[in-house]
Design brief:
The chain contains 20 helices and 13 strands. It is of the alpha/beta class.
Length: 528
């Protein structure tokens, strides 16, 4: 009896063990480097990392101090200098230069990237990790961005490199992922980049991208190379080689969000990954306020990075006056709980359960500055958006929603009561916005796997398959002439040119001969 029971237990254990291995859940040592300075990217990263830890992987994270909160089963290495740099920027008002001046932004960004790489590699906790010979990592995850010096970790640990893009995509990310696509280039800096598609705008944008490439090659990369060589001692050729080592790249986007992309197989869209987290709880008074909204609810939030008290006073008063004239109820995410001149149809809340609000059946419109996570949440819930973009990627996020028909965008610099009121009423009355939003939501949600399951599967795929070069397109491996098919084009141009020149020469020769013949016929009559 005991022998039979033991055999049964052993059989079950072997079955489960085999099942785990088939599922790719064999434990691996994973290092994630996420030097973000604001909360939104961590909201995308947290469920992904938490799930990796639950599946038995040994995860180590290098992050700023206090961001994110400790994740169970994850070892955290906090880099305090990253926080200190951000505090210094805010105190010196340098951060506001990112909004208004492209050249100041690029100069400041180059310094930020240099400091971030140096601060991470010089951190005592990171140094202890590097000096501990027992440390082993099978996979290193980092943002495909300009922190090239950190790529030395990949060579140091002989690990697979995986990308995790929590924000918007740009030409540099494309190249690192092995997906060069010049016809759909997106800039690193949106300041001064035209959203028009006219010929002159495209020429202007090409110049914009070329300026960024020059900055990257002449300023940013040489600075990263100095750090790379200081801490690892590798050559510049090694750095160029490591830049082509990104295997799988997870991107917080989805084709239903707007612009269609031609991706190589290793770029995996996992837009909505943060939606796997439980929704924030809703208070009873807020729930009642929404339930009893006879004419619907409009929700206003300017995201996590914009405090209402920093908005111009005239803009705050404009919003209050407009809301007071309308019969809908408004939920306003604001730290100013006691707003002067606030009408009774406005509910002010400092920490709004945004996803809960957007899922409520009485919600009619979402007014937002257009942060990526807010756009994703509105898309998931099928709620039309009225955009008031202010900086960074917000203009682009809202533009593609506008082209799809679920978003209207207003310029806060020229905004007035009449324009705002008319736009809100148009979006509430016209059924096209709600219908298009619901249609887009279906496209967004209809996938073979959830974003989180997709991210985990491809992460473990990268662990199982060490060499994924066949999934990316490296222009270094393909001659420039062949990549752009310039040989075919030049051959065609040569043949066409040869024929054209021959025809022109023949016509010119006939014309010249005919002219000489006419001259000879006319000569006797002239002399006579």
């Amino acid at each position: 009896m005991r022998l039979g029971f033991s055999l049964l237990v052993l059989s079950l254990w072997l079955f489960l063990h085999q099942d785990l291995r088939q599922d790719g859940a064999e434990a691996a040592n994973i290092l994630g480097v996420f030097p973000y300075r604001h909360i939104s990217p961590f909201l995308v990263m947290q469920p992904f990392v938490r799930t990796l830890a639950k599946r038995g992987h040994n995860v180590t994270l290098i992050t700023p101090k206090g961001m994110p909160n400790d994740i169970e089963g994850v070892r955290h290495i906090r880099v305090a200098k990253l926080n200190k740099r951000l505090t210094e920027m805010i105190k010196s008002n340098q951060v506001f230069e990112l909004i208004y001046n492209k050249w100041s932004e690029n100069s400041l960004k180059a310094g930020m990237l240099f400091n971030a790489s140096h601060d991470i590699l010089s951190d005592p906790g990171v140094q202890r990790m590097l000096q501990d010979r027992s440390e082993r990592f099978d996979l290193i995850i980092m943002e495909p961005t300009n922190l090239d010096a950190l790529l030395g970790l990949v060579e140091y640990y002989n690990a697979t490199l995986m990308g995790f893009s929590s924000g918007r995509w740009n030409w540099n990310s494309e190249e690192l992922a092995g997906n060069p696509a010049p016809t759909v280039y997106e800039p690193i800096s949106p300041i001064g980049y035209s959203l028009d598609t006219t010929f002159l705008s495209r020429v202007h944008n090409w110049i914009h991208i070329m300026e960024e490439k020059l900055l990257e090659h002449l300023v940013i990369r040489p600075a990263q190379l100095r750090i790379f060589q200081k801490f690892f001692g590798y050559s510049s050729q090694k750095l160029e080689e490591l830049r082509t080592k990104f295997s799988v790249v997870l991107i917080n986007s989805h084709y239903s969000m707007g612009k269609i992309r031609a991706n190589v197989p290793n770029i995996i869209e996992v837009g909505g990954l943060h939606l796997s987290e439980p929704m924030e709880p809703c208070t009873e008074d807020l729930q009642r306020f929404m339930d009893e909204a006879e004419h619907g609810v409009i929700y206003l939030s300017m995201g996590n990075d914009v405090l209402v008290r920093f908005l111009p006073e005239n803009l705050q008063q404009l919003l209050l006056k407009t809301f007071a004239k309308l019969k809908q109820r408004f939920i306003w995410k604001s730290e100013l709980l006691n707003m002067p001149n606030k009408s009774e149809n406005i509910f002010v809340i400092e920490k709004a359960p945004q996803r809960h609000i957007l899922e409520h059946p009485n919600i009619r419109l979402f007014i937002t500055n257009g942060g990526q996570l807010s756009v994703i949440e509105a898309l998931h819930s099928g709620v039309p958006i009225l955009g008031l973009p202010m900086f960074f990627d917000q203009f682009r996020n809202l533009r593609w929603g506008h082209l799809s028909g679920m978003v209207e965008v207003l310029d806060i610099n020229t905004l007035n009561e009449d324009i705002l009121t008319a736009t809100i009423q148009e979006m509430l009355v016209s059924p096209k916005y709600a219908l298009r939003s619901k249609e887009m939501s279906k496209f967004f949600q209809d996938r073979p796997m959830s974003p989180l399951d997709t991210a985990i599967w491809w992460t473990e795929y990268a662990l199982r398959n060490k060499n994924l070069n066949r999934m990316r397109l490296n222009t270094e491996d393909i001659p420039l002439i062949q990549y752009y098919k310039l040989d075919t084009i030049l051959t065609f141009v040569f043949r066409f040119g040869l024929v054209a020149v021959s025809v022109i020469f023949l016509v010119y020769s006939l014309f010249k001969r005919n002219r000489r013949a006419r001259g000879r016929r006319l000569q006797p009559s002239i002399t006579g």
